[in-house]
Design brief:
single chain, alpha/beta, Rossmann fold, 7-stranded mixed β-sheet, 10 helices, 41% helix, globular
Length: 277
């Protein structure tokens, strides 16, 4: 199917600049080190829980949809060897960098989330890491979600790490109370309305309980707004204290990231774990 839209060139241009700026660095597509580390921790927990539910079974087939420069898959292949990892990437410049990595058990392919290049029921798991927000039309985002459901096996899992309007709205309420200007989504992002999303995917996915995969688990996958405290400190408290704008990777912010559990709903970046119906 043809999926080219008016905004495709804008997205490719943005990520071409990311490739030029960051190469194979972990800061490519995410310059906030705390967010990158916490996202990676959550994805590693995702694979760990999948392994726990498949003791003695065949290797997992996992797709990182919108894999960027391949950083996350490289981490997974080193920490959880023996599975089949695929990275699908829309931007040719990032894909070239990903293919240049010496990553075991990984393949990197050109892939459009609206028309995923895998067969029906082919994969055990898919995750997206701020990928679908780069699709700037709701119907196209919904098509991508249909494609994720199509390529997953029945009972397969989808870890969605994307941006949502409610977290941004709450963060901006706090900023307004402190005399700070509201923040807006980047020009290349379209955030999800959570209620609209959950209604649209009903029949494709149901919300998964991490504890059912691993009894007693209480890690980041149990906390939808796993970045809430970080966003409150970085986007509200830090600029309030300094009387300036928020700055990435300050010692002030990193200190609180190490001691505060996730509290509230102040982050647009959230995770949702789904199981294919």
């Amino acid at each position: 199917m043809s999926t080219t839209t008016d905004y495709d060139a804008l997205i490719r241009d943005h990520y071409r600049r990311q490739a030029d700026k960051h190469g194979d660095s972990k800061r490519s597509t995410m310059e906030d080190d705390v967010i990158r580390a916490k996202e990676t921790e959550a994805i590693e927990d995702f694979v760990r829980l999948l392994e726990a539910g498949r003791a003695g079974k065949s290797p997992l087939r996992i797709l990182d949809l919108g894999c960027g420069n391949g950083h996350t898959l490289h981490c997974l292949s080193e920490k959880f060897p023996g599975h089949f990892y695929s990275g699908g990437e829309f931007c040719a410049d990032l894909l070239e960098i990903a293919r240049g990595r010496a990553a075991e058990d990984c393949e990197f392919v050109s892939c459009d989330a609206r028309d995923i290049c895998f067969a029906d029921n082919a994969l055990d798991a898919v995750f997206t890491q701020r990928c679908l927000i780069n699709i700037l039309d709701w119907e196209d985002q919904l098509q991508a979600l249909r494609e994720i459901a199509r390529v997953l096996k029945p009972g397969g899992h989808y870890l969605m790490i994307e941006c949502f309007t409610d977290g941004l709205e709450n963060n901006n309420k706090a900023r307004t109370e402190c005399g700070l200007e509201s923040l807006q989504p980047a020009h290349h992002n379209r955030y999800f309305d959570k209620d609209v999303l959950l209604e649209a995917i009903d029949g494709m996915f149901h919300v998964a309980d991490p504890e059912r995969l691993s009894p007693g688990y209480n890690g980041p996958l149990c906390h939808t707004n796993f970045l809430s405290s970080h966003y409150f400190v970085a986007r509200v408290l830090h600029p309030l204290v300094t009387q300036g704008e928020w700055i990435r990777n300050t010692e002030f912010v990193k200190f609180f990231a190490g001691v505060l559990p996730p509290t509230g709903n102040y982050s647009p970046i959230q995770l949702h774990l789904f199981t294919k119906v």
